[in-house]
What does this fold into?
Amino acid sequence: MSTFSVGLRHVDTVSVMDLRGFLDAHTAAELERAFQQLLQEKKYKIVVNFRDLVYISSAGLGVFMEFIEDIRRNQGDIKLSNMSPKVFHVFDLVGFPQLYDIMKDEGDAVRKFTGRT
It folds into this structure.
C-alpha cells in the first residue's frame, strides 16, 4: 500500500497543505478530506506544497479539479508550489499550468494571496 500524508498549517491568512509520499487512487481520499475540512472552515486561500510528494496519478489530479470551482466561487484559489520536475511534468501534460498558479517557492505562492513582499 502507498504511503501518503497531508499536513495542514497556516501562514498569515493562507492555509498550506504539505503533501508527502504517493498520491494515487488509494490515497486520494485523504487529500479530499483535507480540502473538505478547509471548505467547512471557510478557508479558501490554499497553497499546496509538493516538496515531499514523490508521485501523483490521475486520481490525485482529479481531486484538485473536484474542489477548485467551490473555492473560486468563494473568492479563493489553490496555488501550487515546490514541485519536482517529475510531478510538474504530470501537471503540465494535462494543462494545469493554464488553470493554476504554479510557483517554484511556497513563499511566493503565499505572497500572491497576502500581497506582502
Observations:
- The chain has a mean pLDDT of 96.
- The chain has one domain: 4-112.
- The chain is about 45% helix and 30% strand.
